Amino acid sequence: MDTSKVISRARSTLLTPKTEWPIIAAEPETVGHLYSDYILIMAAIPALVRFVSATLIGIRVPFIGTYRFSIATGLENALLTYVAALLGVYVVAMIVDALAPTFSGEKNRVQAFKTVAYTYTASWVASILGVIPGLGWIAALLGLAYGIYLLRLALPVTMKCPDSNAVGYTVATIVVAIVVAVLLSVLVNAVLGTGARLEIAPGAPYPR
Predict the structure, then answer these.
(1) 15, 87, 158, 159: which one has the fewest Cβ atoms less than 10 Å from its Cβ?
(2) Count of structural domains within the chain
(3) Among the listed ranges 21-30, 64-73, 154-163, 167-176, which one has the minimum average pLDDT value?
(4) Is residue 208 one of the residues assigned to a domain?
Protein backbone atom coordinates (compact mmCIF):
# COMPACT_ATOMS: atom_id res chain seq x y z
CA MET A 1 0.00 0.00 0.00
CA ASP A 2 1.43 3.37 -1.04
CA THR A 3 -0.34 5.92 1.16
CA SER A 4 1.05 8.85 -0.85
CA LYS A 5 -0.66 7.50 -3.96
CA VAL A 6 -3.89 6.96 -2.01
CA ILE A 7 -3.84 10.55 -0.75
CA SER A 8 -3.02 11.88 -4.21
CA ARG A 9 -5.86 9.92 -5.82
CA ALA A 10 -8.34 10.96 -3.15
CA ARG A 11 -7.34 14.61 -3.50
CA SER A 12 -7.58 14.55 -7.29
CA THR A 13 -10.92 12.74 -7.22
CA LEU A 14 -12.39 15.34 -4.88
CA LEU A 15 -10.81 18.49 -6.31
CA THR A 16 -10.59 17.79 -10.06
CA PRO A 17 -13.11 15.02 -10.78
CA LYS A 18 -13.83 16.07 -14.36
CA THR A 19 -10.23 15.43 -15.38
CA GLU A 20 -9.61 12.57 -12.94
CA TRP A 21 -12.44 10.24 -14.01
CA PRO A 22 -11.06 9.73 -17.56
CA ILE A 23 -7.68 8.88 -16.02
CA ILE A 24 -9.31 6.44 -13.62
CA ALA A 25 -11.36 4.80 -16.38
CA ALA A 26 -8.28 4.27 -18.56
CA GLU A 27 -6.13 2.66 -15.86
CA PRO A 28 -5.60 -1.12 -16.07
CA GLU A 29 -6.91 -2.43 -12.78
CA THR A 30 -8.35 -5.42 -10.94
CA VAL A 31 -10.93 -5.61 -8.17
CA GLY A 32 -8.33 -7.13 -5.86
CA HIS A 33 -5.89 -4.29 -6.42
CA LEU A 34 -8.61 -1.70 -5.91
CA TYR A 35 -9.29 -3.20 -2.51
CA SER A 36 -5.67 -3.63 -1.45
CA ASP A 37 -4.38 -0.34 -2.87
CA TYR A 38 -7.27 2.01 -2.05
CA ILE A 39 -10.49 0.70 -0.53
CA LEU A 40 -8.90 -1.03 2.49
CA ILE A 41 -7.20 2.22 3.46
CA MET A 42 -9.97 4.71 2.78
CA ALA A 43 -12.76 2.60 4.29
CA ALA A 44 -10.82 2.53 7.56
CA ILE A 45 -11.36 6.28 8.05
CA PRO A 46 -15.02 6.18 9.21
CA ALA A 47 -14.31 3.10 11.34
CA LEU A 48 -11.46 4.91 13.10
CA VAL A 49 -13.57 8.04 13.53
CA ARG A 50 -16.38 5.97 15.00
CA PHE A 51 -13.98 4.39 17.50
CA VAL A 52 -12.50 7.73 18.56
CA SER A 53 -15.89 9.44 18.89
CA ALA A 54 -17.59 6.58 20.74
CA THR A 55 -14.79 5.64 23.16
CA LEU A 56 -12.47 8.62 23.64
CA ILE A 57 -14.67 11.66 23.05
CA GLY A 58 -18.07 10.31 24.03
CA ILE A 59 -21.56 10.55 22.62
CA ARG A 60 -23.76 13.38 23.82
CA VAL A 61 -27.36 12.38 24.51
CA PRO A 62 -29.61 15.47 24.95
CA PHE A 63 -31.07 15.89 28.46
CA ILE A 64 -29.28 12.76 29.68
CA GLY A 65 -25.53 13.15 29.52
CA THR A 66 -22.37 12.15 27.69
CA TYR A 67 -21.65 8.49 27.26
CA ARG A 68 -18.89 6.46 25.74
CA PHE A 69 -18.38 2.84 24.77
CA SER A 70 -15.93 0.66 26.59
CA ILE A 71 -12.69 0.14 24.64
CA ALA A 72 -13.59 -3.47 23.83
CA THR A 73 -17.04 -2.55 22.56
CA GLY A 74 -15.60 0.40 20.64
CA LEU A 75 -13.11 -1.86 18.88
CA GLU A 76 -15.86 -4.34 18.02
CA ASN A 77 -18.04 -1.50 16.74
CA ALA A 78 -15.19 -0.10 14.61
CA LEU A 79 -14.32 -3.51 13.19
CA LEU A 80 -17.93 -4.23 12.24
CA THR A 81 -18.22 -0.77 10.68
CA TYR A 82 -15.08 -1.45 8.65
CA VAL A 83 -16.25 -4.85 7.43
CA ALA A 84 -19.66 -3.40 6.57
CA ALA A 85 -18.00 -0.66 4.51
CA LEU A 86 -15.93 -3.19 2.56
CA LEU A 87 -18.99 -5.34 1.96
CA GLY A 88 -21.07 -2.31 1.00
CA VAL A 89 -18.63 -1.34 -1.75
CA TYR A 90 -18.78 -4.86 -3.14
CA VAL A 91 -22.58 -5.11 -3.14
CA VAL A 92 -23.18 -1.65 -4.61
CA ALA A 93 -20.51 -2.16 -7.30
CA MET A 94 -22.08 -5.44 -8.37
CA ILE A 95 -25.47 -3.77 -8.67
CA VAL A 96 -23.99 -0.82 -10.59
CA ASP A 97 -22.52 -3.32 -13.03
CA ALA A 98 -25.83 -5.20 -13.35
CA LEU A 99 -27.75 -1.96 -13.95
CA ALA A 100 -25.48 -0.75 -16.77
CA PRO A 101 -27.50 -2.22 -19.70
CA THR A 102 -30.70 -0.72 -18.26
CA PHE A 103 -29.24 2.73 -18.86
CA SER A 104 -27.55 1.82 -22.16
CA GLY A 105 -24.18 1.47 -20.47
CA GLU A 106 -21.56 -1.26 -20.76
CA LYS A 107 -21.25 -3.98 -18.15
CA ASN A 108 -17.72 -3.98 -16.75
CA ARG A 109 -17.12 -5.20 -13.23
CA VAL A 110 -13.78 -3.49 -12.74
CA GLN A 111 -15.13 -0.14 -13.96
CA ALA A 112 -18.12 -0.54 -11.63
CA PHE A 113 -15.79 -1.08 -8.67
CA LYS A 114 -13.75 1.98 -9.69
CA THR A 115 -16.94 4.03 -9.88
CA VAL A 116 -18.17 3.02 -6.44
CA ALA A 117 -14.80 3.08 -4.67
CA TYR A 118 -13.84 6.55 -5.84
CA THR A 119 -17.35 7.94 -5.42
CA TYR A 120 -17.33 6.76 -1.79
CA THR A 121 -14.18 8.84 -1.30
CA ALA A 122 -16.40 11.85 -0.58
CA SER A 123 -18.16 10.11 2.32
CA TRP A 124 -14.98 8.55 3.69
CA VAL A 125 -13.14 11.86 3.79
CA ALA A 126 -16.15 13.81 5.09
CA SER A 127 -16.51 11.34 7.96
CA ILE A 128 -13.42 12.93 9.56
CA LEU A 129 -15.71 15.76 10.69
CA GLY A 130 -17.48 13.18 12.84
CA VAL A 131 -14.79 13.47 15.52
CA ILE A 132 -16.31 16.85 16.37
CA PRO A 133 -19.42 16.32 18.52
CA GLY A 134 -22.61 17.23 16.68
CA LEU A 135 -21.09 17.20 13.19
CA GLY A 136 -21.65 13.54 12.37
CA TRP A 137 -24.90 14.12 10.47
CA ILE A 138 -23.50 17.17 8.70
CA ALA A 139 -20.50 15.10 7.59
CA ALA A 140 -22.81 12.36 6.30
CA LEU A 141 -24.91 14.84 4.32
CA LEU A 142 -21.85 16.55 2.85
CA GLY A 143 -20.37 13.21 1.84
CA LEU A 144 -23.63 12.09 0.26
CA ALA A 145 -24.14 15.34 -1.65
CA TYR A 146 -20.66 15.44 -3.10
CA GLY A 147 -20.73 11.71 -3.76
CA ILE A 148 -23.82 12.20 -5.92
CA TYR A 149 -21.94 14.82 -7.91
CA LEU A 150 -18.93 12.52 -8.35
CA LEU A 151 -21.16 9.65 -9.42
CA ARG A 152 -23.00 11.76 -11.98
CA LEU A 153 -19.68 12.70 -13.56
CA ALA A 154 -18.33 9.16 -13.43
CA LEU A 155 -21.04 7.00 -14.97
CA PRO A 156 -20.81 8.28 -18.57
CA VAL A 157 -17.03 7.84 -18.40
CA THR A 158 -16.60 4.56 -16.53
CA MET A 159 -19.81 2.70 -17.45
CA LYS A 160 -20.16 4.28 -20.92
CA CYS A 161 -23.79 5.26 -20.45
CA PRO A 162 -25.18 8.11 -22.60
CA ASP A 163 -25.07 11.42 -20.79
CA SER A 164 -28.84 11.68 -21.15
CA ASN A 165 -29.21 8.51 -19.04
CA ALA A 166 -26.66 9.48 -16.40
CA VAL A 167 -29.15 11.18 -14.07
CA GLY A 168 -31.43 8.13 -13.96
CA TYR A 169 -28.44 5.82 -13.48
CA THR A 170 -27.19 8.07 -10.67
CA VAL A 171 -30.54 8.13 -8.90
CA ALA A 172 -30.87 4.34 -9.12
CA THR A 173 -27.37 3.86 -7.77
CA ILE A 174 -27.89 6.28 -4.87
CA VAL A 175 -31.13 4.53 -3.88
CA VAL A 176 -29.32 1.19 -3.94
CA ALA A 177 -26.41 2.59 -1.91
CA ILE A 178 -28.75 4.02 0.74
CA VAL A 179 -30.70 0.77 1.05
CA VAL A 180 -27.48 -1.24 1.35
CA ALA A 181 -26.12 1.20 3.95
CA VAL A 182 -29.30 0.97 6.04
CA LEU A 183 -29.36 -2.83 5.90
CA LEU A 184 -25.70 -3.09 6.87
CA SER A 185 -26.23 -0.61 9.71
CA VAL A 186 -29.12 -2.69 11.03
CA LEU A 187 -26.93 -5.79 10.78
CA VAL A 188 -24.05 -4.12 12.66
CA ASN A 189 -26.39 -2.96 15.44
CA ALA A 190 -27.96 -6.40 15.64
CA VAL A 191 -24.55 -8.05 16.04
CA LEU A 192 -23.56 -5.54 18.74
CA GLY A 193 -26.94 -6.01 20.41
CA THR A 194 -27.24 -5.43 24.12
CA GLY A 195 -23.56 -6.24 24.58
CA ALA A 196 -22.63 -2.66 23.76
CA ARG A 197 -21.68 -1.47 27.23
CA LEU A 198 -21.87 2.26 27.83
CA GLU A 199 -19.96 4.16 30.47
CA ILE A 200 -20.46 7.66 31.86
CA ALA A 201 -17.78 9.89 30.40
CA PRO A 202 -15.58 11.69 32.98
CA GLY A 203 -17.23 14.87 34.18
CA ALA A 204 -20.55 14.03 32.56
CA PRO A 205 -23.78 14.34 34.55
CA TYR A 206 -25.44 11.13 35.60
CA PRO A 207 -28.74 10.44 33.82
CA ARG A 208 -31.84 11.09 35.86
Answers:
(1) 15
(2) 1
(3) 64-73
(4) no
